[in-house]
Amino acid sequence: MNTKRIVLALALSIGLFATSCSNDDNEGETLAPIEGKWEIVQVGTTINGVETLIDAPQNTSGCDRDYLNLKIDNTAITGDYDSTVSACALTTASGIYSRSHNNLTVVIDGVTKTSDIVNLTLKELKLKDANGIIAVYHK
């Protein structure tokens, strides 16, 4: 009986020790994969501490949503659907991206944009740029 208690106490103490350790390098960082095709669904900003989001006006009615495709090889492709010339014409641009902790930097056509990753799950990517502009993407 004493042996079982000692083994139980040892197992509990190892479990508590393992859960109390953390890796400071990833503090606050989400570890969900960022790669994938993300369709923009909402944009907005924070005013007086209140986040306000609206449906993304850049999405052309009747067309697929505009997107940001982040590939595993760190290439980025943006897709913009527009019906100005012809119905739901797709224009793409490509470049590169990098992720450093909770920052995403995308360089498309020589223009660099760095945003904070506010939320990243398997289905949602929420970014906030230096001007406070929020963009919400879904897979």
Distinctive features:
single chain, 139 residues, mainly beta, Lipocalin, eight-stranded antiparallel beta barrel, 9 strands
Draw up the topology in text.
Elements (H helix, E strand, L loop, with lengths): L1 H19 L15 E12 L2 E6 L11 E4 L4 E8 L6 E12 L2 E6 L2 E10 L3 E6 L4 E5 L1
Note the main sheet. 8 strands, antiparallel, barrel
Which architecture does the CATH hierarchy give at level 2? Beta Barrel
Briefly note the CATH topology name: Lipocalin
Shape type: globular
Cα gyration radius (Å): 22 Å
Uncertain regions: pLDDT < 50 for 5+ in a row? Answer: 1-26
Placed side by side, the strands forming the largest sheet appear as 1-3-4-5-6-7-8-9
Mean pLDDT level: 84
How much of the sequence lies in strands comes to over 45%
* Count of individual domains: 1
Number of helices, counting only DSSP H or I runs of 4 residues or more: 1
Distance between the termini: 54 Å
Main CATH class: Mainly Beta
Q: Could you state the order of secondary-structure elements as H and E? A: HEEEEEEEEE
Structural class: mainly beta
Total number of strands: 9
Helix content: 10-25%
